[in-house]
Amino acid sequence: MTTATLEKKSSDSVNEKSVKYIDKPDDTFPIIGRLFDYMAGEDERSKFILALIVRVIALIGLVAIPFLTGQAINVLSDPNGTTAELQRWVIIAVIAAVVYLVMSFFAERLFADMATRGLQKLQTRLFSHMQTLSLTFFDRQPIGELMSRITNDTEVVSLFYEQAVSPIIRASIQILLTFLVMLIIDWRLTIVALLVVPVILILTNVIERVSTPAFAKMQEELGSLSGFQEESLSGHKVIISKRQQDWADGKNDALADSLHEVGSKAFFNSLLQYPLTQALSLIQIVLVMVVGALMVVGGETDLGTVIAFAGYAALLTKPLSEIANLTSTTLNAAAGGRRVFTIIDEKPTVKDAPDASEFEFKGGHIQCVDVDFSYVPGRKILRHNTFDVAAGESIGICGPTGAGKSTLINLLTRYYDIDSGTILIDGQDLSKLTQESLRKQVGVVLQEAFLFTDTVMNNLKYARAGATDEECIDAAKEANAHEFILNLPQGYDTMLTERGANLSQGQRQMITIARAMVAQPKIMILDEATSNVDTRTEKLIQEGLRKLMEGKTSFSIAHRLATIRDSAKIMVLNGGEIVEYASHDELMAMKGFYYALYMSQFKGKAPAGLDEADVDFVST
Amino acid sequence: MFKSLLRTMGMYKQFRARLVVSQVLVLISATAIIGVASLNQRLINEGIEAGDVEAILSTGMWMLLLAVISGVCLAGTAYFAVFFSQGTGYYVRSYLYRRIQTFSFGNFDRFRTGDMLVRLNADVVNIQNALLYMTLLLLYAPFMLLITYVLTIINTPSLLLVLVIVTVVVLGVMALLIPQVFRAYDERQQRLDDMNNTMQENLAGVRVVKAFVREDYEVERFDQRADALRKPAYTAAVRVAFLAPMLTGITQLGIVLSLWVGGQQVLSGSGLNVGELVTFTQYMSLIVAPLAMLAIVFPFMLRGDASASRIFEVYDDIPTVQDREDAQPPEAETVGGQVVFDNVSFAFRRPDGELDPPVLKNINLTIEPGEQMGFLGATGAGKSALVNLIPRFYDVTEGSITIDGVDVRDVPQDNLRQIVGIALQEAVLFQGDLRFNLKFGAPETEDDVMFDAAKAADSYGFVTNIPQKWEAPVAQRGANFSGGQRQRLSITRALTTQPKVLILDDSTSALDASTEGRVQEAIPDFTDNITTLYVAQRISAVIDLDKIVLLENGEIVAMGNHEELLESSPLYQEIYESQLGSGITAGLDVEVEK
Question: Do B77 and B49 fall into the same domain?
């Protein structure tokens, strides 16, 4: 086993992410070609050719050495040999070795440069393409799943770029050159030296065939074990409270046991290659030496040639097993690349029309006419939604879970395209506007207060390119966030940890409100979040929201009816349809669906003057 | 050094004997390999130079035999290496997990789930790698070097210097290069994590990105991360790729050097012959690779040891809640469910053993059998901490909690948690089917009990609407059910164990008020005289209960039913005002006039 293969094996086992894939569809070669283009395509073509030339020069140096040392040995076995002759061969051999070392170094630099640049190109291409994709793409799978797939796939591709391309090219050229030189020197010894090669190839192939699926199986077992461990440890409260530790222990043991079984098999199979090739290449050298010795005795050749052939034998077998070892890396890369290219080839579902115009804000008058929408064809989420919002009016939206509240507001920012009907903002058809111009005027505060891992200030500035510090601080003051931000360890320069975990839910919310203010939107959309916030914070948040919505056309989804009762109008949704649409007082007087929703909060403890509702509803 | 790593090996009962056998095999195979090379001397001197075909063939046979022996012995070593690494992996995974299962909430506060998972996965893999390469390679190169040095000193002492030079050069170059490679890999990993985090955030915040139209900014940010990744990736890649050609080059230079030094001696007739010289050159090509690998084993061992000590950090942690030795199970039939807090104070314990400021102060409270009590207060008021003390998720710092007069610390946890059932806010379900999940606390329960529990928790309807009903598959963490459904299933699960005291720790937060009301009404009918404790953020969750306890800063500030509190407690009025609107004056007429 060479150090390179040790490195490769170790990186396989160290890096759990390098999942081995066994499927081998027919498009492997086109995909490898496409991956290769990122590394050595058009722009890099000349660099690649240069690397190849440097590599060939290096290997010519290497392949010359056994011949030169053989000649030196001939000098030694010649009774008339002189030190001067020996010196000549030794000096040439040293030059050859130095050429090999220096040129190899340059070749590896060129290849590593192309490899890492190629990977970067692929990564940024993938990322920037995903930025153009619509929400339908992101809805298709949980983000975590998408993320871990991309991480794995790019990692196996990077292994291919960084650890397979250069060795494969190096090994191929080395095999070719060595074989040629051997043939030129002595074809009979060449045949002897090649005797073991098919055995090595077959063995490596067999081992690869056995161990690749075994490693795939091992990854699978590892996946289910760590999946179970993650699930059971994050659910530890349930297990502790129900005293089911024995169940967890038993299941963990069973999973660890089958991982042990599969893992032992996989590792042993793949490790077998090392003693086997080691022994076989020893045998190969012995065969060359013995047959060569017999030929020398028979006067067919000289000792120097035999020793040179022993050297060539090693130069031939090492790269062979190296290539064999790298096939799985290559196949993994093809599988990973296939999935990466699936994303890169994905077309966005919401596209700007070719003749799309810029949105021009004229007060914020919104008309929806007979809007139907479905995420999945045939399963309508919204039906016949028709409503009219006057400029500057505030609209509260309520209804049971699954009524279509979030869907409705998603359509107003054109995260999705509607099935049929029309949405007009200030008389301009939404589908004929550029997404960018629309979204710059429509502010959104979402239920999940999402913040980036960055400073508070940068999170605020995120809302608008070019926003100044002063504007951000003013917005924070408006949103009642200024005071607690100043109390953070580094004030506005405090780093927020992942998903803003070092702030309370309420504080995060206030920052998102301030962030929305920085954007200076003309129309506001809010998905109210209320859980885990105490009353005082709640008041501060409500105050911030009121300032944010002041004088603007606004939509807010409410889960607590108290927060929308002051809205100009309340839109009550049920089953994808607008069932009621009027002010709070009018709706209460109607004693319909809204009234029932409202009364249910009091559970019979409603203030005097309100009767129990007789409408009941079932949430999904 | 490597104490923790060796401790992991000690998890095997008879590992010593096996370890010795494996290393004897390493020694034999090293000897056999050097033997093959050494026989070249005989092949050349007694065979070629003497023209003795017989000698050539017999030497050849010996060489072949030794080659086979080396292969077989190495295969044996590989077997043991796999045996140790995989076996230890199994033991660590199993023992560590078992230890974690004895932990209580306090231990889980110390080590977060993510930290534990790293120890159960990445750290175990590091140990496995260390043991694998240790067994295979740690003594391989030293043995081989030892034999080579001995043979050189005996046969060709004049070439010893060459051997020393090559040894030093290989070790020196590797000692220089390998730490660089590992550093570059660590740096690469960090940059890769940075880049992946950026992507993860971008994907998770895709709506925010789109809302503020910041796609270009995101691409720019990602470009920077990808660019920062490229440099360490390049450094690592160049060094790793150059390793193989470099070692080949050093081997060849070693051969040339020995030919130069030895050749002059052969030519001057100072006793060295061609056979001896050729044999020596063969040593060169044999020792370089094992020497180089030695340099790779050490970093793996260092990593393995660091991982092992991280693992033992968790493994050696003591469960914060343990059964007392004289704990007695109470008689199940006689449990009434009266819960009494007697001057209870509680503070979380920090990892260094010190106490944090108290989260509960001098709580005195009696909950009668069959009572429905609500706990209301802001985040951090101590509601959850208070109810978590009843099933002993934590132990009180001062005072005591009794159920029917028996201190909860005098009851084995198994029995205590049969008496006290809890449904948590984060309703975690496990992969499996619904029946498994709902009977999670009591697998032996009759289906009828589960059906009744499901009816009480308002989950019967939606479950029976699923085609597979109670056999319906549950994805990991219950991801295939909505938040409200999960909470109702979690309440069902708590009811199925038929507890005497039921705690709903903010576990109806995702339900609408009317569903919540139905569940609250149904629970007393499910079990007669069940004591029920509701922890809630929303006032509507507790509004119609017998008694509402209002907590603030770890103290009970008011207690009573809705009407009483509305009358007497300013804090309660404030909460009511904010959540249910100006409800006090919300007579419709007033509103309409406005």
Answer: yes
